[in-house]
Amino acid sequence: MTIIEVAFQFVAQYPRLKGGRLNVDFLPAEASNYSVDTVPTKTVVKQYMDGSSLRQFLFVLASRTYYGPEIRQQIDNLGFFEDFADWLDDQNRSRNYPALGSGRQVRKMEVTTSGYAFLPDTETARYQIQCKITYFEKGGPKV
C-alpha cells in the first residue's frame, strides 16, 4: 500500500468528515467536498549507514466549503480544522498510527500549519491544513 493510500484511509477516520466526500488530489468545486493532497518535499530526512532512513510525508487536508461575509460561516470553517488538528494530536499522543507496511514505522504525525482559507471565491473557498508523517524505513530490499 502506498503512503498516500494510508494517509487517505487514516484521515477518513476523522469523525467530522461524515457527510462529505473525501478524495485524493482532487477537490471538486461543490461545497462539502474534501481531499487529501500530496505536498512536494524532500522525502529523506536522515540517512543511516545501514541503508535505513528517517523520512517524511507531507500532505494537506483540503475542503471546499461555503464562503461569504457571514462571520459564523468562517468561524465554522476554521473550527473544522482546529478540531482536526486536536484530533490528529490526540492520535499522536495515543500513538494510534496507521500501518505503513513492512519495514516502515510511523514515529510522529503532526499538523505543520493551522487551517486557512486558500483560494476564496464569492460563494465557496478552499480551506486547508498541512500535516506531516515522520517515519522510519528499514534499509535493504523492500518486501
Q: Quick recap of the structure?
A:
By secondary structure, this protein is an alpha+beta fold. The chain has 2 helices and 7 strands.
Features:
STM4215-like, elongated, 2 helices, alpha+beta, 143 residues, 7-stranded mixed beta sheet
What is the architecture at the second tier of CATH? 2-Layer Sandwich
- Distance from first to last alpha carbon: 12 Å
What percent strand?
35-45%
Q: CATH topology, what is it called? A: STM4215-like
Would you spell out the secondary-structure blueprint of this structure?
Blueprint: H1 3-11, E1 21-24, E2 33-38, E3 44-47, E4 53-66, H2 71-93, E5 104-111, E6 116-120, E7 124-137
Could you please describe the fold and organization of this structure?
The chain is 22% helix and 38% strand. With 143 residues, the chain is an alpha+beta fold. The protein has one domain: 2-Layer Sandwich (STM4215-like), CATH 3.30.2000. Strands 1, 2, 3, 4, 5, 6 and 7 form a 7-stranded mixed beta sheet that branches.
